Amino acid sequence: MASSLICGETHSRVSSVLNRDVKQYGKKYLFDRNEETCWNSDQGECQWVCLEFPQSVKVSELKVQFQGGFSAKTCRLDGCPKDGAFTEISHFYPEDDNSLQISLSLTVQNRTEI
Fold first, then answer.
1. Range of 46's domain?
2. Whether residue 112 has pLDDT greater than 60
3. 108 falls in which pLDDT band (50, 70, 90)?
């Protein structure tokens, strides 16, 4: 089982927050490990989350959890080295339910460094 790459020094940005209500739906709820809270985006075709890690990381697994009825139909994982251009790593298609889903699982030999 992989350990989380998210730490106190990880910076995050999001495309939008529902009704700009960051107190109820802000990005701080992405990683708070509380099933009663979540980040909610405004409606729109393309919503995104951007993470900037304090050092290079090797991604071996990505886990996502959506609220049932509010899942994305298709997702894309992009990555880049610091000050580099983004490149596509993977597409994934989450289930529209509340389960914790492993959306990307790479073997140790094929880990992606970003």
1. 11-105
2. no
3. very low
pLDDT digits (tens, 9 = 90+) for 3-25: 788 888 999 999 999 999 999 99
Tell me, yes or no, whether 2 lies in a domain.
no
Predicted confidence band of residue 28 (pLDDT cuts 50, 70, 90)? very high
Position 14, amino acid:
V
Number of structural domains found in the chain: 1
Q: Residue 44 falls within a domain, yes or no?
A: yes
Task: Give the position of tokens 């089982």.
Answer: 1
- Residue 50 inside a domain? The answer is yes
CB atoms within 10 A of CB 75: 19
**3-state SS string for the chain:** CCCCCCCCCCEEEECCCHHHCHHHHCHHHCCCCCCCCCCCCCCCCCCCEEEECCCCCEECEEEECCCCCCCCCCEEEEECCCCCCCEEEEEECCCCCCCCEEEEECCHHHCEEC
